[in-house]
Amino acid sequence: MKLYRSLIYRELKLTRKRCILMLILFLLLSLLMLLPIMIGGLSGDSEMEEDLLSIVWLASGIVALTGGFLAGTNNGLQKADINSGWKRYSFILPPTAKQQALSDLLTKLCYILFFGLLSVAFLMVCKIVSGINTAVEGIDPICRMLNIYLGAVCAVMLVDIAYSYIMMFANDKNQLKLISALAFVGAGAVLKVFGLFPRMNKTEKPAEDGTMISEEAVNKFETILCSGKTTLCILAVFVVLCVLFFLAMWRSHERRES
What we know:
By secondary structure, this protein is an all-alpha fold. The chain has helices spanning 2-14, 16-43, 49-72, 77-84, 86-89, 97-130, 141-167, 173-195, 215-225, 228-253.
């Protein structure tokens, strides 16, 4: 257990600047989203309650989406290890490739849990500041935010897995420049390929009144987003991605026989 604590501490220590930067960005966005809610809550106008609820839902969705992107994104440790020569040096250290990969996964889960709790805290603050009930017509705002958050995490983790797998072929600074470019292109190609699947890029039929998205489509999307079944599906995808991330990092940390 001490080994994993030390490995996780090492990664958190080396990535602390990036983590602090992401935290500042998250807090600034949260403050920006909170300002109109504070203004609406202080107005005391009961007729604005429905509009205020829409603002709370929109703000919480944006914050959860941003938190998911920040939590799931690559932390840059792999690139730093190659630049510093740590990757080659780690081949002779006691921790095995499997142990290092597991510590990478645990660190990723720490970031996901941290920003997830911050996203939920933002929703709680919005509820207190606005003074309105955010649960309407059986829709659980926590479930809605969780689905948005985990969906964003899964999307970014998919890109991170592709990026990390390609980056493992770089061994020194000279190779790093070329491999980094290939990894960036490869990660973008993953999203492009998934966009080619049926119904992934299918647009809804436009509304008759000329609006971009019909009210029926919005209501249907909101129902799916707030469904417990959607949460279970996203959690299943998240578990699969965690396994793939572990395997990619395991392969990246494998010692050479020669």
